[in-house]
Specification:
It is a single chain. The chain is 39% helix and 21% strand. It is of the alpha+beta class. The chain has a single domain, classed as Metal Transport, Frataxin, Chain A, CATH 3.30.920. The protein has a three-stranded antiparallel sheet with strand order 1-2-3. A hairpin with a 2-residue loop joins β1 and β2. The longest helix has 11 residues.
C-alpha cells in the first residue's frame, strides 16, 4: 500500500471537492463536508498552514470512504 502523503487543510479540502464533497457548514475552526451521493460526512479542523497529522488524515479518509491510492490520485489531478 502506498504511503499516505502529508497534506495541509486546503490540499485535503480540494481533493475532497474533486471526489464530490461539498462544504456543508462551519463551526469554529471545523469545516464539515458532505457527499450527496454516498451520504458520507467528514469534519476537518482548519489549523491554518500547519500540516495535518497522518492519523487525522487517515480518519478523515475512512469517514469519506476514500482509499489512500484514490486520495493520491485526487491530489495529483
Amino acid at each position: 500500500m502506498p504511503e499516505l502523503p502529508k497534506v495541509k487543510f486546503r490540499e485535503l479540502t480540494r481533493a475532497l471537492e474533486k471526489a464530490g464533497f461539498t462544504h456543508d457548514r462551519t463551526k469554529g475552526s471545523h469545516f464539515y463536508y458532505l457527499n450527496p451521493k454516498t451520504k458520507a460526512k467528514v469534519s476537518i479542523p482548519n489549523h491554518g498552514s500547519k500540516t495535518l497529522g497522518t492519523g487525522l488524515t487517515k480518519g478523515i479518509l475512512k469517514d469519506a470512504k476514500i482509499t489512500i491510492p484514490e486520495f493520491i490520485d485526487l491530489l495529483k489531478s
